[in-house]
Amino acid sequence: MNTTEDDPAAGAVTADLRLRVNDRSRPVCVDTRETLLDTLRERLDLTGAKKGCDHGQCGACTVLLDGRRVKSCLVLTVTADDREITTVEGLARDGGLHPLQEAFVANDALQCGYCTPGQLCSALGMLAEAAQGWPSAVTPTDAGDGEVRLDEAEIRERMSGNLCRCGAYRGMVEAIGEVAR
């Protein structure tokens, strides 16, 4: 950690970090108060995650941190040192779209597109959670076999932390259900 004398913010403390973003190691020096969202957008030019509310309420900034979905506007960058970060830019592989991206397009699961990167990252994280048997508020209590059936209600509940101002939810639910099957 360093205290920078010439920083306009009095007493700013910086930290030299190594972020692993989309399978690539990225050295970065950040203010210890900086959010992961700001680091991704302003320092690493990864603008897929959007700054919607900047309070963790809309989900437009959702990324995966060690495979778990997080609202990057609420995560301090210093806590992501040497952890795996996946943004929407890291979903496509070998020149082709990720199956979720393909399903979003095929099911008309986007309109303006502002929330889409966060929706995609959240959907990928929730599919992993369901595959691991994590229950949600609507998972039947008699589902004791550890399998989570991703019906419409289950998908809607698990995606409820990501808002879409355009109302493209129907297409999103269909796209996620298609990939889950």
Could you characterize the architecture of this molecule?
Keywords: 2Fe-2S, Iron, Iron-sulfur, Metal-binding, Oxidoreductase. Pathway: Alkaloid degradation; nicotine degradation. Residues 15-91 form the 2Fe-2S ferredoxin-type domain. The protein has 181 residues and is of the alpha+beta class. The protein folds into 2 domains: 2-90, Beta-grasp domain (Ubiquitin-like (UB roll)); 99-180, [2Fe-2S]-binding domain (DNA polymerase, domain 1, Orthogonal Bundle), CATH 1.10.150. Helices cover 28% and strands 17% of the residues. It is built from 5 helices and 6 strands. It has helices at 36-43, 99-106, 116-131, 152-158, 169-180; strands at 2-3, 13-21, 24-31, 62-65, 68-71, 84-86. Strands 1, 2, 3, 4, 5 and 6 form a 6-stranded mixed beta sheet that branches. The chain is globular and about 55 Å long. The N and C termini lie far apart (47 Å).
Show the helix and strand layout.
Layout (H helix, E strand, L loop, with lengths): L1 E2 L9 E9 L2 E8 L4 H8 L18 E4 L2 E4 L12 E3 L12 H8 L9 H16 L20 H7 L10 H12 L1
Parallel strand pairs: 2-6
Antiparallel strand pairs: 1-2, 2-3, 4-5, 4-6
Protein name: Oxidoreductase
Organism: Sphaerisporangium rufum
Pfam families: Fer2, Fer2_2
Any key phrases for this structure?
about 180 residues, alpha+beta, Ubiquitin-like (UB roll), DNA polymerase, domain 1, 2 domains, six-stranded mixed beta sheet, 5 helices, 6 strands, about 30% helix, 2Fe-2S
